[in-house]
Amino acid sequence: MSLLVKPCNFCNRPVAKGSGTMLAKNDGTVLWFCSAKCKKNALELKRDPRKFKWTKKYVKGGIRKK
């Protein structure tokens, strides 16, 4: 992973330099989002990216609980 490309915190797709949205939280963590769709799903709707087929974090067969 180069310094110019960072992964989206929701869908794990690459965010190129000069595009996307960076969010700096009060606790010092930095979140990168490739689109408004990812930002809204993560922050406003508080969704789990492992449940959506359009994300790269999708887990086929569902999420296994212990």
UniProtKB/TrEMBL annotation:
> Which cofactor names does the annotation list?
Zn(2+)
List ligand-binding residues for Zn(2+). 8, 11, 34, 38
Gene Ontology MF terms in the entry: rRNA binding; structural constituent of ribosome; zinc ion binding
Which SMART domains did the record assign?
TRASH (SM00746)
Q: Which GO terms describe its biological process?
A: translation
Q: Which residues form the TRASH domain?
A: 8-46
- Keyword rRNA-binding (UniProt): yes
Q: Which UniProt keywords apply?
A: Metal-binding, Ribonucleoprotein, Ribosomal protein, RNA-binding, rRNA-binding, Zinc, Zinc-finger
> What does the record's cofactor remark say about binding?
Binds 1 zinc ion per subunit.
Q: Which Pfam families match?
A: Ribosomal_L24e (PF01246)
**KW Translocase (keyword) present:** no
Quaternary structure, per UniProt, is: Part of the 50S ribosomal subunit. Forms a cluster with proteins L3 and L14.
Instruction: Give the record's family classification.
Output: Belongs to the eukaryotic ribosomal protein eL24 family.
Function text: Binds to the 23S rRNA.
Q: What is this protein called?
A: Large ribosomal subunit protein eL24
- The organism is Marine Group I thaumarchaeote SCGC AAA799-P11
